From TrEMBL:
Pfam families: PQ-loop (PF04193)
Protein name: SemiSWEET family sugar transporter
A GO cellular-component term linked to this record: membrane
Coiled-coil region(s): none
Keyword match Membrane: yes
Organism: Microvirga aerilata
Chief subcellular location: membrane
GO MF terms, alphabetically ordered: sugar transmembrane transporter activity
InterPro entries according to UniProt: PQ-loop_rpt, SemiSWEET
Topology in membrane: Multi-pass membrane protein
Record's subcellular location: Membrane
Keyword set, alphabetical order: Membrane, Sugar transport, Transmembrane, Transmembrane helix, Transport
Spans traversing the lipid bilayer: 6-29, 41-59, 65-83
Length: 92
């Protein structure tokens, strides 16, 4: 298989994976409610994405590096909101 197809496949998969975080980030941000979000899951995810970045650097894979960096940002945002203890605003 040609290399550009593999890169295109990796970019498509990474795009889908990374943007799956967007609804969670928006919901937590808009509703200010992180009660149902698992802190342990997001800590484990951040560790995993960081390891994937290292792996991507070792094999020089742009899709692996790029989208795991995006995942670190999104998962970090959700975890930061969770740690800040966002609660729904009263009277809404």
């Amino acid at each position: 298989m040609q290399t550009w197809w593999l890169t295109a496949l990796g970019l498509a998969a990474g795009l889908c994976t990374s943007f799956s975080f967007v609804p969670q980030v928006l919901k937590a941000w808009r509703e200010r409610d992180t009660e149902a979000i698992s802190k342990r899951m997001y800590v484990a995810s951040l560790i995993a994405y960081s390891l994937w970045i290292v792996h991507g650097l070792m094999i020089t894979s742009v899709p692996v590096i790029l989208f795991n960096a995006v995942n670190v940002v999104f998962a970090g945002l959700v975890l930061a909101m969770k740690l800040r203890g966002l609660k729904p605003e009263e009277g809404r």
